[in-house]
């Protein structure tokens, strides 16, 4: 953990800016080779890479609806109840996000924009240490609200099938028809270009490690993607009125994601600065993933002593964090001055973990400062817009001289001819 003073915080900005460049271009040759092999060899390549990277190649990469239903039937009622609460809240939050078309008309011309759902979407759900049903919910539900007809799930195969069951239960509850056991770069390649078993999609969403992220970058253009997501991050603004134990718990909740996660505390409390290390030490001892947390604490955890809430807001807007917690006496007032953040959590009893699971707002958020221009995943990410235009003959005549001026300035003779031939 590194301590800064607001007046000397340029070093913090420098370290955070370096974070934006951590996704090394050196990964591209390896990732490109895997993508090319999948394009060339299809399912055979998927099997070979599953053995190489996951240590297992399932007899069939397809998960049947029967398997999903069996997982659901065997699930604990409390888990199903928790999923249903999350599903209902995520639906309620995302329904108002639907984009709507419009039309501008007069007697002899009209024009407008139609909004259409994407036809087929691939959702990547990471595996490894655990299964992440919340990721499946946060990606599938906005797509379903948008009207996407074909939703495809991919996730790495597991030696212990029990690890997959939470995902299968969630998939069953959302009516998923296609579910494939393939992970990593090979999954992104299969979704983008197709194999004998997996048909290509229009868009790929969902988080992954740095290799998955590099793969999404490389296939972008041939297929759409949601965003380029980096390691998880949280920034907390504190006025010293919330218990320090709450603050530390929220910092550590982000750091347990992986060793690259980032946590920042901006505080005006001298007492918090003095006591935070001992409170961190106490809480870390209670965690299962101590190794991840300890690495992240040493690498990218920062405490900045500020003099005012205004200074903290200024710093936060400049950093543009993925998650921002306003642990202050009047969080709604402070929210009015926040311009850059993926999601904002207001007050002592709204921890970021609430947003990860059951509250409703999407937990797929812009990272590494991209909240300056990017938005959370939403229903709108699974829709596209299409313009249309109608002029009758008299309306075309009215504007033909102006079009002629443009075509001459741009030296596009055929464009001018396409208008003049009609009048």
Automatic annotation (TrEMBL):
Stated name of the protein: Histidinol dehydrogenase
UniProt binding sites for Zn(2+): 254, 257, 356, 415
Gene: hisD
Organism domain of life: Bacteria
Record organism: Fusibacter bizertensis
Pfam family, one: Histidinol_dh
EC identifiers of the protein: 1.1.1.23
PROSITE patterns: HISOL_DEHYDROGENASE
Binding annotation for NAD(+): 124, 186, 209
């Amino acid at each position: 953990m590194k301590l800064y003073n607001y007046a000397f915080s340029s070093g913090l900005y420098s370290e955070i800016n370096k974070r934006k460049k951590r996704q090394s271009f050196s990964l591209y040759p390896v990732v490109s080779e895997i993508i090319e092999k999948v394009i060339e060899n299809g399912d055979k390549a998927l099997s070979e890479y599953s053995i190489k990277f996951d240590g297992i190649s399932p007899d069939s990469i397809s998960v049947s609806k029967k398997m999903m239903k069996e997982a659901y039937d065997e699930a604990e009622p409390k888990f199903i109840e928790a999923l249903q609460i999350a599903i209902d809240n995520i639906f309620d939050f995302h329904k108002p996000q639907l984009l709507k078309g419009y039309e501008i008309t007069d007697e002899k011309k009209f024009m407008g924009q139609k909004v259409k759902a994407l036809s087929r979407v691939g959702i990547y759900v990471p595996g490894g240490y655990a299964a992440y049903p919340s990721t499946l919910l946060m990606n599938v539900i906005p797509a379903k609200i948008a009207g996407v007809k074909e939703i495809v799930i991919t996730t790495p195969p597991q030696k212990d099938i029990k690890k997959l069951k939470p995902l299968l239960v969630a998939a069953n509850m959302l009516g998923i028809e296609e579910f494939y056991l393939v992970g990593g770069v090979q999954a992104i390649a299969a979704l983008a270009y197709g194999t004998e078993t997996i048909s290509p999609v229009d868009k790929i969403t969902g988080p992954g490690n740095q290799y998955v992220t590099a793969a999404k970058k490389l296939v972008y253009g041939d297929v759409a993607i949601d965003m380029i997501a980096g390691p998880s991050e949280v920034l907390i603004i504190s006025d010293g009125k919330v218990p320090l134990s709450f603050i530390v718990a929220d910092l550590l909740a982000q750091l347990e994601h992986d060793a690259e996660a980032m946590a920042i505390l901006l505080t005006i409390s001298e007492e918090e600065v003095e006591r935070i290390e001992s409170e961190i030490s106490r809480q870390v001892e209670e965690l299962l993933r101590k190794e991840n947390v300890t690495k992240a604490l040493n690498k990218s955890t920062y405490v900045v002593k500020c003099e005012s809430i205004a200074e903290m807001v200024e710093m936060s807007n400049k950093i543009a964090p993925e998650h921002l917690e306003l642990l202050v006496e009047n969080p709604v007032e402070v929210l009015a001055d926040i311009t850059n953040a993926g999601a904002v959590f207001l007050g002592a009893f709204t921890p970021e973990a609430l947003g990860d699971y059951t509250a409703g707002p999407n937990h797929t958020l812009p990272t590494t400062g991209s909240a300056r221009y990017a938005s959370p995943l939403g229903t709108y990410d699974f829709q596209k817009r299409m313009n249309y235009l109608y002029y009758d003959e008299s309306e075309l005549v009215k504007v033909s001289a102006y079009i002629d001026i443009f075509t001459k300035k741009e030296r596009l003779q055929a464009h001018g001819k396409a208008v003049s031939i009609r009048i």
